DNA sequence: GAGTGGTCTAGACCACCAA
DNA sequence: TGGTGGTCTAGACCACTCA
């Protein structure tokens, strides 16, 4: 049936459908990697035509929220796929070669949120957070020194042991263990000189230029969930970015 | 009419239409900023339904090749728009404030392409290029030292005077004066220490960490047209990137 | 009011996949 | 073989813009 335009929300129908599907994703109706209902099923559930359900799903696919596979169905996107890893880890070897990735956890403690970070995570300054430091190794060479801050409440249960299980992919762990999926992030890049700690951990002279990447990651409802600062040695690596 | 699937190219119809429209863009049938034919006109021209022409235009719009304006028409995208500037100039003030942009041309000479750059521009090493150096000022403070290399042939006529006319937006000049529109770019970011030249021009001590941005820009047919290296002082500025 | 792009529907056929 | 997403069509109405 054709709905009148004077709907509760002044949104096209397909966007309302998209919002409803997003709500179901937030509520966890389908976990990461699972198939979601077909176009026809959504059309029936919401009383719209298949084309309208399709357009809602197409937009979710364009935002990398879901993945469509011809002949199989539509699936909740996952950080398992190679594609997704490249979307979030932009540092690549200068010569383009593939590399073995490894990581070394340095520490993982409970702490209190500093004001600046609390603001970016949209939590109260001083509230409980989990504070992680780790080293990322490319082909067995330490390249990135990461500092990760997580709000303690949704991430309750994040411990050194848990982190170790996922070969350094924090996002895979959030998904698998906590059902928290990051769908987008905002990065701020700056050049900086290595401080004493970074220099010693990366095996450099203090003051060596490093690429500093500050990242805030968001879940479905644009809620910030993770703050991260990576200090990267860029002698043999580039941060690759496609502008379109 | 419904065309059989066994078309010359194994592409969906709307992609074939898209390719045809792209060809017309390359040939310069419509200049930057101009209106292109309506959906109905394309449908008639290519003998397809309006919906198919629409899907072709939608994809071109998604790639920022054209801009759609309800009630007015579809237009060839331009680097005039504020949106587009932000798409290519990612350096923003740390406090988020808007800034006055200015530029100072340092030199503009004819030269020969070095091997590495020639390869990226897909031209022969040693072929004629235009070699430009300039300083970009944010709020009257020098922030970026740019080096720009252009193949001499398509960019014949690029001179110091011409560059001055466009308030530093090279892309606007390429469009307006030469009909060359950049549609995408690839950037490689690295942290480096200021060499003597950069240090003196930016008013820094040699060795100061700088964000190095190497960019290759492409026109419609994915043809590389410009090589650029920017050395950026990131004390009060960030390179902002949205990952989706 | 005429023309444009935006939304929505309904129905057809195709390509792919799994059982 | 039946179900999925992918393509294509045709026609309707809406919202916006401009003369």
Short description:
In chain A, 29% of the residues lie in helices and 34% in strands. Chain A has 244 residues and is of the alpha+beta class.
Total tally of structural domains of chain A = 2
- Strand residues, percent of chain A: 25-35%
Judged by helices, strands and strand pairing, the structural class of chain A is alpha+beta
Mean model confidence by pLDDT of chain A: 91
- The number of distinct β-strands of chain A equals 11
Within CATH, the superfamily of the largest domain in chain A carries the name Chorismate lyase-like
Order of strands across the biggest sheet of chain A?
5-6-7-10-9-8
Classify the oligomer: homodimer
Summarize the largest interface: chains and residue counts.
A-B, 33 and 33 residues
The CATH topology of the largest domain in chain A turns out to be Chorismate lyase
Q: Biggest β-sheet of chain A: count, sense, barrel? A: 6 strands, antiparallel
Highest-level CATH class of the largest domain in chain A: Alpha Beta
Could you spell the SSE succession of chain A in H and E letters?
Answer: HEHHEEHEEHEEHHEHEEE
Low-confidence parts of chain A: 1-9
């Amino acid at each position: 049936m054709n709905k009148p335009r004077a709907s509760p929300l002044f949104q096209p129908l397909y966007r309302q459908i998209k919002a409803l599907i997003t709500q179901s994703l937030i509520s966890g109706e389908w976990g990461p990697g699972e198939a979601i209902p077909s176009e026809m099923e959504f059309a029936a559930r919401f009383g719209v035509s298949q084309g309208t359900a399709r357009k809602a799903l197409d937009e979710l696919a364009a935002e990398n929220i879901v993945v469509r596979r011809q002949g199989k169905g539509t699936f909740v996107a996952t950080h398992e796929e190679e594609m997704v890893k490249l979307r979030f880890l932009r540092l690549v070897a200068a010569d383009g070669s593939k590399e073995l990735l490894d990581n070394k956890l340095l520490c993982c403690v409970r702490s209190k949120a500093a004001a600046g970070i609390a603001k970016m995570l949209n939590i109260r300054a001083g509230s409980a957070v989990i504070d992680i430091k780790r080293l990322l190794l490319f082909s067995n060479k330490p390249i990135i020194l990461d500092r990760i801050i997580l709000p303690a409440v949704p991430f309750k249960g994040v411990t050194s042991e848990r982190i170790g299980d996922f070969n350094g992919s924090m996002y895979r762990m959030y998904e698998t263990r906590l059902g928290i999926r990051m769908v987008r992030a905002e990065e701020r890049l700056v050049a900086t000189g290595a401080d004493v700690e970074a220099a010693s951990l990366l095996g450099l002279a203090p003051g060596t230029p490093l690429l500093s990447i500050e990242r805030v990651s968001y879940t479905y409802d644009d809620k910030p969930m993770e703050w991260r600062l990576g200090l990267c040695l860029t002698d043999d690596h580039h941060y690759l970015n496609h502008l379109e």
